[in-house]
Amino acid sequence: MRALADLWDRTRTAARPGWRRRFHDLYEDFADATVTELRLRAEGRHLELDDYLALRRRTITVLPVLAVVERGLPAADRLDGLREAAADIVAWTNDLRSAPRELEEGTENLVGVLARHHGCSPSRAASTARGMLARRMDDFDRAAHGDRTAPIRQVRDGSLAWQRETHRNPPGEGFSTGEHERGVPALARHLTVAVDAAGQVDDRCGSRVLESALLLSLLRKHGVEPGEQERLARFLRRRRPDASSVDALLIDACLDPARMADRAPERAARLPVTVSSGTAGRGRLKSVMLRTVLHLLCGSALEDGDAPAPVGPEGITTFTDVHVLSARIVHAHARGRSHAVTGAERSRLLSLLSLGRDRVLWEASATTHLLGLHAVRTFRPDAQVLDDGLLRLCLSVNADDGVPFLDSQDLWLTAVAGLAFTGVDALAPYVPRMAALVADRQAADGGWPFATGMRQTDVDTTTRCMEFLHAAAPRRHGGALDRATGYLTAIAGPDGGFPTWVRGDTPDLDMTAGAVLALAPRAARHERLLTGALAFVLDAQHPDGTFERSWTVSESSAILRAVDALHAVPVASARLAARIAAATARSVTRLLATQHPDGGWGQLPDDPSDVLSTAQAVPVLARHGDPISVSRAVTYLLARQDADGGFTSPPDQVGPRPLPFDYPVLADLHTLSALRSARLPDDTATRTPVTLPGPSPASESPGKPRKPARAGADWPALEAGLRGVLLRPEQAAYEQARLLVNQRFDGIRPQAIAYPADVHDVVECVNFARTSRVPLALRSGGHSYAGYSTGTGLVLDVGSLNSARVGDGRAVFGAGVKGGQAHLALAAAGAGLPLGRCPTIGVAGVTLGGGLSAFTRAWGLACDHLREAEIVTADGRVRRVRADSPPPDADLFWALCGGGGGNYGAVTALEFATEDIRDLSHTRFLVSWPTTATADVLRGWSLWNGDPATPRTVTCAFEQLSDGGVPSRPTVTGTFMGTPDALHPLLDRLAAAVGRPEADRLSTPCDYPRAACEADRWGSGTFGPRVAFAAKSHIVRSPLGPAAVTDLATALDALHRLPGVGGASGLLIDALGGAVGDRPANATAFPHRAAVGVVQYHSYWHEFTDGADVERRLAWLRDVHAVMEPHLGPGGYTNGMDPELTDWQTAYHGENYPRLQRVKAACDPEELFTFPQAVTCRVAGR
């Protein structure tokens, strides 16, 4: 109750009116539902399925939590369906995770309710529940569009993440089938619950002796957590009787340090050679590291030669960096030679351990984390990183009281699982979400780490992710695959081999085979690289047909990976083909010779059979060997299937090499692949699907009538042909999805809105619109001043095509990329582009209309940097057009450079040449004058901006905004490429040109994204609430003369006398000149190259603004535009379209319009892409 009272007090100031009543009602409902649940449990009563689902939604607390999170936002009752979907997702996920425990306790749980409802086993009920959860996630994603839904998604995702990370419901606990089932059906049902609602496979790593001993030793030295110390000691004592020689040594050293201090080195010297030497490559458990560990556990002596040499941070892994620093610090402390380690090394170790807080353990590794903390304790025992690390490590302790090697391997496991799931009917529905998760978590360097939140990427995880994405949806994830391909090709060694971690490391057989498999779908582009890699694999084979076992224990694992790689790429060389055939024969012969009488294989020929070794041998023989041997192996596997449908096996992965570590789900995944390769049927198609009662999905809205489709438009056929999403009026998400940024057009109701998954979906939509004669509107950011990015037919929203790739002097953006996203991606690569100032505006729309920005005078227009555009034209063709393309594509590219979006086709991707910003600094500035100085500021700024002496490094604008009855200051704001000290002499010249005392001057150094976006600047767009607005524009072709300045100042002064509140009006004059004028007027379709500025007259209001006040604002816009026409002449900015403008052809396009018409006639003769101010094929008036 104290916590609730504290929460009540903390939310007092931030909450909107009425929030407390809403929270009170929701929390009271939760409390009532919890009491009902307790009463039912006490009475031994069971609910029917529908009643249970309704009650469970109320007992999960998601709705009260959402009320707290959303307390500062408008209520948005229309999102209640989305909130309920979030509650269901969290509740059902929790039920799936806790079901084994709760079923044993006799507690009511969704799995038990389903088992009772359908009269089926818990295993089948759990699989059914997982299917329900997948559909509910789909409901949520279809409905969750727009910024307002973001807090709900965050609560959903945060709750799911918490459930993954808590130990309250350990993963891996299975459900008994209750039936005599074997094979793929039972295994598939078992695996459905291994994938969480987000598509992530995050099995729990088994406990190990090494990490448990190191943590126990550290806790003892630090004198904390006696309860955890006892748990760890119990674990070690339980492990001792069956421990390997290495583990036995570590246990004895930890539990009996006094006796072992002198004996440990001698016992270590007698260990098998594989422990001290390991295998080639980084990550081996070298003798020096073993002696360091023994010293930490029992205080055994360290010799002078045990200290590794210092290494720099470049060209090594994050793990090696910490390992070497830790070993050097520990050795120096043990030998009493603190001077042997520099202060910089100690500081670096502290700095490294302070990073990586996106995971419970540092870089997901308990080993590395513990070694680093042991080292820190020798020189900074009171360091915060030590206390924090101990807490994290104690939180990582498993239910069996031991410490795992890793706290996650989720990305690697998800990729391996996704590849195994592909083609299995019962599991395939989960694959798209798994693939999307994998693609989304790609690292900036193009690779993948093995766990979410890590910095260090690796070849193994990257190749697994690439294999999966190629199998799942290669076109949808083409951007991720492109980046990953670049990562792999960059890390390859000169001998054709691939290392595990960083370029220059010793190449690894497993990594090289994986790289071949990952690059095989693009073999034609990488023939030389793959030929070298194949040769490396062939050269790595031993005479007995085996291969080096680097990161695995079993022979069959290395053979499977290598043989699959050898047959993944077509080879033209007869000699190479012969070598591959011979190598395959040797490996098959080895497997046939080492198959045990029980049909299985051991990790080594003399080891007993186990599931993982057998499962990895089966695919090789199924593809290249003896079917009888395969049959025997399958018989072995099925005989060892657990009651829950899964499989159990000794671990096969190792790390640090050669210490094994266990992720139990791997036995299930490899067995699934083995059974599938043996053609064992999954027979899921023969079962009758179960129709489940339950709450209506979030995507349904029975209260909204279905609007009839236009005659001849087969919307279900379009939806069936799309990989992405098609929203129709009957779906709840439609109402939010149809809205633009501008509230003026809220009354327009499209027949459908399409969110394409890839360019092929765009082709489907274009072809559909053409053949069905349905009006087509294109939308990227939804900022169209005139509302032309919506309509009454099909809206094609390319916002879903939002991939971004920057590097090597170029940037490739999907047409859905927004300004803020683009600038962040650019900044991360040390690059820049003039892509508009608004963080939410679509980059495509900005570029196609020319593209003003915070860097216009220095870098020119956005379209000036465009190098290639991918566009789907009206005939359904995907064209990639450049300036040097053959006709008519070269003309089309010219038209796309400033001729306005939506005219010639649906642009899907843009490639730009970027600017190098690595040596640039940026300063934002604002200078304002008294309200009486408007005319002087307009005149002085206009002259200063047009003066050739004003450097291009200054890009600025005049702006003046006035609400009803409130005078405003004339202001110049802008961005300077340089420091404030270098800027102020330039601003002094501006002040001199104005000739009036300044009211204020501000200058602020900033980074590139803030300089580029200017999200808090009026006229630049924000992330805030939607408004209604209207605008008109003129082109300023020369500095404003006295008469123009007087009329404009008078018009602005008239704004002060407008009554009414709830909005504002004013003008914005963006500077041109500089680099814009370096090209002639016909170099691109943007015709205003010689101009010095673009003036936009704005007015905006809110939905509650009085209608009469709106009309006064619109009248002011018309008046000021008419007043300025004689001074400025016809002209307007195509990215600020004015639907009232009659001579728009000349205003927007000038003398370039006839050529634009010819381009239109060539690429869209039937004018499929049209709107009231679209370029036409015909002469106006005909």
Poorly predicted segments = 275-285, 684-710, 1015-1024
Overall 3D shape = globular
Gap between N and C termini, in Å? 77 Å
CATH hierarchy, class of the largest domain: Alpha Beta
User: Based on the structure given, which CATH architecture of the largest domain is correct?
Assistant: 3-Layer(aba) Sandwich
* Largest sheet data: 7 strands, antiparallel
Q: How large a portion of the residues is in β-strands, by DSSP E? A: 5-15%
Integer-rounded radius of gyration: 34 Å
Note the total helix count: 44
How many domains would you count in the coordinates? 5
Tell me the CATH topology of the largest domain. Vanillyl-alcohol Oxidase, Chain A, domain 3
Which structural class fits the helix and strand makeup?
Answer: alpha+beta
Order of strands, widest sheet: 19-16-18-17-21-22-20
Quote the average pLDDT: 89
